[in-house]
Specification:
single chain, 189 residues, alpha/beta, Rossmann fold, 5-stranded parallel beta sheet, 4-stranded mixed beta sheet
């Protein structure tokens, strides 16, 4: 395998997808599309944003060893199909993951030289505002996500190689691109 694995994680609502959309404009990576059992949001496209499947299809993929990593978050299952990622690495492409902490830990355990980046909100108050702005999350769910975010933030330094604060999409994306280019130049493969 000659490609590099770049893993990006962060609390729900921190802006990972927005940052990565900008990063993908600046740097050529194979973007790993995750599989999920959660409902598709109106703006999302199956096979582009996620592979949307039912629970039995997901569980069959787990049982068959078809996922590199997987975890349950918020009552939904999320995971990364193995075959497209390994094929991209074999072609020498660098692979970009947008996954949560449990998946990031699984990638770190299996691929020691993966580069892990954690996206932080400017504050928990700002994160709460962003979650409310989504308009698709109940107050109870927001409270639960904030509690999870506090734990993730407290433990981020133990797992992640870098941390990026998202106080501006453009600034956070530029910082992320710098990290990715530096890691590539250092031969993290």
């Amino acid at each position: 395998m000659s490609g590099v694995l770049f893993v990006v994680s962060g609390p729900s609502g921190v802006g990972k997808s927005s940052i990565l959309a900008e990063v993908r404009k600046a740097v050529d990576f194979f973007f790993s599309v995750s599989m999920t059992t959660r409902d598709r949001r109106p703006h999302e496209i199956d096979g582009v944003d996620y592979w949307f499947v039912n629970r039995s299809v997901f569980e069959a993929a787990v049982a068959a060893g078809e996922l590199m990593e997987w975890a349950e978050y918020g009552g939904n299952l999320y995971g990364t199909p193995r075959a497209p990622v390994l094929a991209a690495l074999e072609r020498g492409e660098h692979v970009l993951f947008d996954i949560e902490n449990k998946g990031a830990q699984q990638i770190r355990d299996a691929y020691k030289h993966a580069v892990l980046v954690f996206v932080l909100p400017p504050s928990l108050e700002e994160l709460e505002l962003r979650l409310h702005k989504r308009g698709d999350t109940s107050d109870e769910d927001i409270a639960r996500r904030l509690a999870v975010a506090q734990e993730q933030i407290a433990n981020a330094a133990e797992l992640y190689d870098f941390q990026v604060i998202n106080d501006s999409i453009a600034t956070a994306a530029a910082e992320m691109v710098s990290i990715l280019i530096a890691a590539h130049d250092q031969g993290c493969a």
